[in-house]
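Fig. S4 source data, part A: sequence.
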Amino acid sequence: MTQFSDLNLNPKILKAIEEAGYTTPTPIQAGAIPAALEGRDVLGIAQTGTGKTASFTLPMIHTLARGRARARMPRSLVLCPTRELAAQVAENFDTYSKHVKLTKALLIGGVSFKEQDALIDRGVDVLIATPGRLLDHFERGKLLLTGVQVMVVDEADRMLDMGFIPDIERIFGLTPFTRQTLFFSATMAPEIERITNTFLSSPARVEVARQATASETIEQGVVIFKPGRREREGSDKRKILRLLIDAEGAGCSNAIIFCNRKSDVDICAKSLRKYGYDAAPIHGDLDQSQRTATLDKFRSGELRFLIASDVAARGLDIPSVSHVFNFDVPSNSEDYVHRIGRTGRAGRQGKAVMVSAPRDAKNLQAIEKLIGKEIPRIENPLKDEAPETKGHDQKDAKQVNPRGTNSKAKRDRSSKEHHKDRSATPEVMETVGLGEHLPSFIELSFEQRMDSR
């Protein structure tokens, strides 16, 4: 089996790797690092959680160990689709370059331009950025990309999903033709293939897993349910989620719960907290400081449930996630693979459970076609409960009808009797749900009110 010591890396890098506790590279690392050290372009295709980040950070540090950065002209560039992924890449550079004197800058939204400009002005060896913020700096005349020796595009298929491909193509055009390009993606959509054919020169293709496959260490399952009433679908799904969490018991040490929409992320997190679950949301509309603090708590174990949109589905290195719950079936089948890839990492066992309503049938079918197998069905935990008595329906009914007059028919009958006999006196008429203090004139008919004048 290949060891890091067999990869001809700088001894200072090997020392940092050893101090980080690693000795054996993952398959994508063992395949990509030697080609990158030779100066070749690399096209790396591997499922999430396989160690792609070290596949490019280690050879980049080795290449950049000699040389000096110039002001406003970074020597290398790493493009990431999200702030969180960019921050994680920066952490990897800090870990593996601790014995090598390299400077870096992180260009992401939510941080002032002034602070980032100051770093760029001093000169950086490694520039890690999201495409939008990078182009913002370039258009302000604060950045030149003509000195880039190595360019990395990380999570390229996610860039495609988020609409960054035009920006990526523009950035490629701003860098030297002689640059080395390291291109990593979990899947190879036709548009991604077109870009690699255009901008990569005879790349070493390293593919360590069948495209869009989930790790074999992940136990998968899906609950298919039909809500008793359409308007109850959201609350029914939230109750199913709670029952699924409870069924896992102590085995569910922590979990990421994915929703399709940001609004549902907030609703789901609020609902879980209401029922005593330790949960917090993370999505693109939250302040960067809040997102970072939430992730830090989840990583450290202070937070048990992270409720997320797909901003957290890619590349976040949280190795010990025991469960992933898909509160919503993702509309993009490839997102399913990336979501559940948050668990079962680095050879650990994990579990992924999804909740599917009837309208999700086509998306569920697409997911199963993509992964090449049927997801095992899990019995609906609400199966034996009548819809009209589930959850808070019963409690709410008691609150709405404190006197026990719980039928619409009775209210309708009362209303008909009222209109039938307009001469009825207030004393013999029953007013449902308004209390004993009702002013008597309200119970009079229109004619009776006019007569009383």
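Fig. S4 source data, part B ends here. The chain has three domains: 4-207, 218-397, 403-452.
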